[in-house]
């Protein structure tokens, strides 16, 4: 069945990496049954069209008009803003002086774009003064105005950090997608509305200038397993790098997790060389922890040679530092539960000794997980409730 609702995704120069492009290819296919995702590129960013060929982007023109009398334009703004002052005494209007008159121009950019029928959303990157070009900012501002004029919900997403002091641009779209809890909390505090979302790590890691093939494999694996295993969106996922040399330690760990068991999905890493007698690693786990696993909502097994699969998890929980914690701590929270060693903390890695402290950390992970929502779910929300221009 062909999707009828359409969402436009605006992309400009300086907003892409090879990893992001590959992700967008995957994501477009992922939601194609429900939403027709159309990528649009302004003529000012025509240099990226060859890179986006696989996404069949549509180009559109923009028109920029220069005020005939920039001083007159500034005077109108100054009159409208005359009552506004910053705490140090400078008027709001005076801060526009350099922008309007410094270059001798006051410019207005307009999108020459007719939205397709049944368009219910516009997705676009939020620019910041610390990394975005002047043209990016002008197209962004014009696009949010264009969406409002056509009754289309606009959603801005974070690529460059948003937990900064400049909040004007994030205030323009109807909603904001953030990558991390710091940005989410900052936006909620400054924008004052509920349409602010945080996407899970496996997606958030993609929307970064330093995303790699590891992250791309991670998001693909996360999509695959979440669908294949039917893991509910509200279930917190923990990655356990099990080793047959620590059968007793992991049994104690599982028993400790039981109070939160029905809210957890456990990912066990297994290796082909970790056999005990005639039992495979997977069989050993299922046999020895049979009663404990009955207290867990769901669990799965993952080849330890595919470490990127841990990106699906909210945290790595281990009984000792190991290769998995070394890899995982670069992106994920890593908790090591070891009653025999002193507590320690460095970066994303924390070692705890007592069961209560471990449970407190697991509870915090569960609370944090509640705040996250997949990108596709945000798109579906737009398709169900967003305004359309039809």
Commentary on this structure:
This protein is an alpha/beta fold and 390 residues long. The chain contains 14 helices and 15 strands. The strands form 2 sheets. It has an 8-stranded mixed beta sheet with strand order 4-3-2-1-5-6-7-8, sandwiched between helices. Strand 6, helix 5 and strand 7 form a beta-alpha-beta unit. It starts with 5 loop residues before the first strand and ends in a 5-residue tail after the last helix.
Write the layout of secondary structure elements.
Layout: E1 6-10, H1 18-30, E2 36-42, E3 58-66, H2 70-80, H3 97-101, E4 107-112, E5 119-125, H4 134-149, E6 153-157, H5 168-171, E7 175-178, H6 181-191, E8 196-198, H7 201-204, H8 213-228, E9 236-240, H9 247-257, E10 264-270, H10 281-288, H11 290-293, E11 298-303, E12 315-318, H12 323-328, E13 333-337, E14 344-346, E15 349-352, H13 355-369, H14 375-385
Parallel strand pairs: 1-2, 1-5, 2-3, 5-6, 6-7, 7-8, 9-10, 9-12, 10-11, 12-13, 13-15
Antiparallel strand pairs: 3-4, 14-15
Helix pairs in contact: 1-8
Helix-strand topology string = EHEEHHEEHEHEHEHHEHEHHEEHEEEHH
How is the main sheet built? 8 strands, mixed
The percentage helix is: 25-40%
Q: What percentage of the residues does DSSP assign to strands (E)?
A: 15-25%
Report the principal-axis shape: elongated
Number of helices: 14
> In which order are the strands of the major sheet placed?
4-3-2-1-5-6-7-8
Number of strands: 15
Key descriptive features of the protein:
seven-stranded mixed β-sheet; alpha/beta; 14 helices; eight-stranded mixed β-sheet; single chain; elongated; 21% strand; 390 residues
């Amino acid at each position: 069945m062909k999707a009828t609702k359409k969402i436009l995704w605006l992309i400009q120069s300086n907003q892409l990496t090879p990893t992001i492009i590959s992700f967008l290819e995957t994501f477009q296919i992922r939601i194609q049954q429900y939403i027709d995702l159309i990528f649009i590129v302004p003529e000012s960013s025509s240099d990226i069209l060859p890179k986006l060929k696989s996404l069949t982007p549509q180009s559109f023109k923009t028109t920029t008009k220069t005020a005939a009398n920039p001083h007159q334009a500034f005077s109108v703004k100054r009159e409208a803003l005359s009552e506004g002052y910053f705490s140090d005494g400078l008027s709001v209007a005076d801060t526009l002086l350099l922008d309007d008159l410094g270059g001798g121009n006051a410019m207005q950019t307009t999108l020459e774009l007719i939205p397709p029928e049944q368009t219910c959303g516009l997705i676009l990157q939020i620019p910041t003064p610390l990394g975005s070009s002047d043209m990016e900012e002008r197209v962004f501002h014009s696009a949010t105005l264009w969406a409002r004029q056509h009754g289309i919900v606009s959603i801005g997403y974070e690529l460059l950090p948003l937990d900064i002091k400049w909040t004007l641009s994030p205030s323009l779209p109807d909603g904001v997608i953030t990558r991390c809890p710091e940005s989410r909390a900052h936006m909620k505090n400054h924008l004052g509305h509920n349409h602010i979302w945080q996407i899970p790590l496996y997606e958030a890691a993609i929307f970064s200038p330093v995303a790699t093939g590891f992250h791309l494999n991670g998001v693909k694996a996360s999509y695959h397993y979440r669908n294949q295993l039917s893991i509910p969106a509200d279930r917190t996922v923990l990655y356990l790098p099990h080793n047959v040399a620590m059968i007793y330690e992991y049994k104690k760990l599982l028993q400790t997790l039981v109070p939160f068991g029905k809210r957890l999905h456990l990912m066990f890493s297994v290796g082909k060389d970790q056999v005990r007698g005639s039992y495979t690693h997977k069989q050993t786990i299922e046999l020895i922890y049979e009663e404990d696993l009955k207290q867990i909502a769901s669990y799965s097994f993952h080849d330890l040679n595919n470490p990127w699969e841990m990106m699906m998890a909210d945290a790595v929980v281990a009984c000792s530092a190991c290769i998995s914690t070394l890899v995982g701590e670069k992106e994920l929270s890593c908790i090591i539960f070891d009653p025999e060693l002193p507590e320690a903390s460095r970066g994303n890695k924390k070692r705890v000794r007592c069961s209560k402290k471990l449970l407190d950390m697991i509870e915090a992970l569960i609370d944090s997980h509640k705040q996250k929502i997949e990108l596709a779910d945000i798109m579906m929300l737009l398709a169900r409730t967003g305004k359309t221009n039809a």
